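In the design runs reported in the main text, the only information available to the sequence generator was the tokenized backbone. The following block is the verbatim input for one such run; it is reproduced so that readers can re-run the procedure and compare outputs position by position.
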């Protein structure tokens, strides 16, 4: 575990106009870049090879590795770690820095709803004691401001994409090669704005490089900007007629170590499918679909987002019907021996987890394991033989360790964790499983329970779960949603989605606001309980990081930079 001390060059507002870092040693040799932080377009980046290398580096190193020397070594270790901590897929262990022991701790829980002696109360609730108290530039300098990291990575990515787009016209390219590069920049801008808009209460729309924008806009406007960029990518892809030119460019943009399994370069048609699924994700993750304590009609008060409507679900069905297919290649990441944008040991939540729970910084949560049915073959990813880790925050206590699936030789099921080079596939964008489970949820919520259950069965079959089918068994709406929520938790583990699911289902909101998680498994005072009530009361959309607001004060007409509901 590493801690970095930040100086002013790491601040997010400066990242809005930093020149991008080059991708790999190979790129540096190819471009003859003397200073990798200052590639010169008139000199270094003036050919097809130069612009593709620059565009690749802007994503994988600026977006997913820029200055990431805190806990772990990439975007997939700490920023995604917070998602999984708040989604209760992992616990933070003991004594870790970067607030990993605190960000996932609920306000309170009652292990046995009938026994008042099993109540745990957190003396430092997340929203005010952790997020607000540590959202300062001083806390950032000491690696204690959780809000800083995602913002920094995503705006570095956006800036690199802007630079790519602004310089395309000066490079000699065929129309279809240029369209492929435009699609690349628009897609990743859409991805980055989606990450910002799905996590922060407000943000900045930065259309040009080397500029500072001081008008903060609402979370809704940021998601609209994401959709705009994704649709620009669709237009560019649909304008490609020479597939050979497209294939050449996309082959240059995808790092070599990623070209394994589903990470091989997607065809233009497959990429279009991915964008459709991403557009559906932007709807689903940013609207409420409460299912609290078995109530499909639960209502959450003082939420930052509205509830899904029938029209929203129908839009999701339309998009997912044209979304990622089972055979499609998608955007993934893998570690490599050299020049990797994340390491096998500390570069991802899954990599950090893949060892004994007595030693790992992140611990597998009891709530993740409970999502798998008895007899599910995918449970082979989890091992109880290392004993129970007793965390200092109680909910961190777990009987389970994530095994190294490559070393163990797991076959026929997804390998959730490994510390071997290239051992695990990090899904960076949408996948077949996510697409299908959004489609299943939309069907269930609009009266098509059997259709939704059949999709859940198909996902379980595709992952080798080996559990009995649920379609055709006469399940009610409540029972169908229980299947759906459990399967999204299980099938999409460690993909950075868990917190957003728990939020939109209402689980992360305070029980006094209609939220909470019920029927949870947890260990309290060395006793395993299986019907616990957890009152997380997490801040649903984060405040803008102080490093941005202090140096880039909100201009006239800006949206609030602090979530007014907390």
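Verbatim output:
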């Amino acid at each position: 575990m590493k801690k970095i001390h930040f100086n002013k060059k790491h601040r997010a507002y400066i990242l809005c106009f930093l020149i991008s870092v080059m991708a790999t040693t190979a790129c540096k040799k190819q471009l003859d870049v003397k200073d990798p932080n200052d590639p010169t377009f008139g000199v270094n980046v003036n050919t097809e090879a130069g612009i593709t290398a620059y565009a690749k580096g802007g994503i994988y190193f600026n977006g997913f590795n820029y200055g990431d020397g805190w806990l772990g070594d990439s975007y997939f270790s700490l920023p995604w770690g917070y998602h999984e901590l708040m989604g209760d897929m992992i616990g933070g262990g003991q004594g870790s820095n970067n607030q990993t022991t605190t960000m996932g701790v609920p306000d309170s829980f009652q292990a046995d709803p009938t026994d008042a002696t099993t109540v745990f109360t957190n003396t430092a609730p997340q929203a005010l004691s952790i997020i607000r108290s540590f959202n300062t530039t001083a806390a950032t300098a000491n690696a204690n401001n959780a809000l800083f990291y995602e913002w920094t990575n995503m705006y570095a990515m956006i800036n690199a994409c802007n630079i790519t787009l602004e310089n395309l016209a000066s490079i000699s390219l065929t129309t279809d090669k240029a369209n492929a590069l435009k699609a690349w920049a628009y897609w990743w801008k859409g991805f980055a704005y989606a990450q910002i808009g799905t996590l922060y209460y407000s943000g900045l729309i930065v259309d040009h490089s080397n500029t500072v924008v001081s008008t903060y806009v609402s979370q809704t406007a940021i998601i609209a900007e994401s959709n705009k960029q994704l649709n620009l990518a669709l237009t560019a892809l649909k304008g490609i007629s020479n597939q050979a030119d497209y294939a050449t460019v996309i082959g240059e943009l995808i790092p070599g170590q990623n070209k394994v399994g589903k990470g091989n370069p997607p065809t233009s048609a497959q990429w279009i499918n991915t964008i459709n699924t991403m557009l559906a994700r932007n709807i689903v993750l940013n609207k409420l679909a409460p299912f609290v304590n078995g109530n499909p009609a639960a209502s959450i008060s003082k939420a930052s987002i509205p509830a899904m409507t029938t029209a929203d679900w129908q839009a999701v069905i339309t998009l997912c019907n044209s979304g990622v297919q089972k055979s499609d290649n998608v955007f993934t990441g893998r570690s490599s021996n050299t020049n990797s944008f994340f390491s096998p040991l500390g570069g991802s939540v899954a990599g950090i987890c893949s060892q004994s729970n007595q030693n790992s910084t992140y611990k597998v949560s009891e709530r993740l394991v409970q999502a798998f049915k008895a007899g599910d073959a995918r449970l082979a990813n989890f091992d109880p033989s290392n004993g129970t880790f007793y965390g200092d925050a109680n909910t961190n206590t777990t009987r389970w360790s994530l095994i190294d699936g490559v070393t163990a030789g797991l076959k026929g099921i997804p390998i959730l964790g490994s510390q071997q080079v290239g051992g695990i596939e990090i899904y960076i964008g949408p996948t077949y499983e996510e697409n299908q489970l959004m489609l299943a949820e939309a069907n269930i919520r609009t009266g098509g329970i059997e259709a939704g259950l059949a999709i859940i069965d198909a996902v379980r079959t595709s992952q080798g779960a080996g559990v009995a089918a649920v379609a055709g068994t006469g399940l009610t709406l409540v029972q169908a949603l229980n299947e759906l929520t459990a399967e999204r938790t299980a099938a999409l583990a460690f993909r950075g989605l868990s917190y957003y699911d728990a939020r939109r289902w209402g689980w992360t909101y305070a029980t006094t606001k209609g939220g909470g998680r019920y029927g949870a498994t947890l260990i309290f005072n060395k006793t395993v309980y299986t019907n616990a009530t957890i009152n997380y009361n997490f801040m649903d959309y984060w405040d803008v990081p102080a490093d941005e607001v202090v140096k880039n004060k909100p201009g006239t007409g800006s949206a609030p930079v602090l979530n007014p509901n907390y």
